[in-house]
Amino acid sequence: MQIDGQIALVTGAGSGLGEATARRLAAQGARVAVMDLTEAAARRVADDIGGLAIAADVADPAAVGAGFVRVSADLGTPRIVVNCAGIGSAARILPRDGGLSLELFERTLRVNLYGSYVVLSHAARAMAEAAPLDADGARGVIVNTASVAWQDGQIGQAAYAASKGGIASLTLPAARELARWGIRVMTIAPGLFETAMSAGLPAEARAALEAGLPFPARMGKPEEYAMLVQAIVENPLLNGEVIRLDSAVRLQPK
């Protein structure tokens, strides 16, 4: 799919992977809706790229639905939707204090997995009602974000890995179901990236993580995630697959 002239919506676009993706799509000629939980963050990016700022919690179907209505009214039907909104979490199943981490587990799945599904559902509905863009009958592309933790989850990542595993697992059935409308569904599973989550790591912990990266032996840059989003959108045969973007890393148990 050609990016130039298309309407795109990126969640979690007020920072990190989402911000880099919104900026890259705009640089390629797309008109971008910047959706983020924080209005100020969404507006900062949207103002920079000439986009539309939308404040919404992805786990709130009504807020996401209102956001899609606004995008359609102000920009047009989004043909590119990228799910980058998510939260990190760390808690053992059996913590030392003897408590249970049920609340954290539920919240992590609600934001990461349920939130991604909410956005995917609204995106699919909007795209399915639009006219095809080419001779193949393509109507749009949805890119979700998992994590290498869905396969290499470390101790303390049960909730996070489960949420990202759910995103990875829904990729193929979603792609198969939406194929009749010409909608592709892909998922990127990033490894260790320079984001707000990694920025707070102590230098020693960061060095230990980077030492386990085969090549390149450094954390990924958000722009490199955005490069893959662009490639997915532009290549019509990429569909129903999870792509690891990870320097060939395999996370150790802890």
From TrEMBL:
The keyword S-adenosyl-L-methionine is annotated on this UniProt entry: no
Cited Gene3D superfamilies: NAD(P)-binding Rossmann-like Domain
Keyword Oxidoreductase: yes
Pfam families according to UniProt: adh_short (PF00106)
Keywords from the named record: Oxidoreductase
Record PANTHER family: 17-BETA-HYDROXYSTEROID DEHYDROGENASE 14-RELATED, SHORT-CHAIN DEHYDROGENASE/REDUCTASE
Similarity field: Belongs to the short-chain dehydrogenases/reductases (SDR) family.
Protein's UniProt name: SDR family NAD(P)-dependent oxidoreductase
Species lineage: Bacteria, Pseudomonadati, Pseudomonadota, Alphaproteobacteria, Rhodobacterales
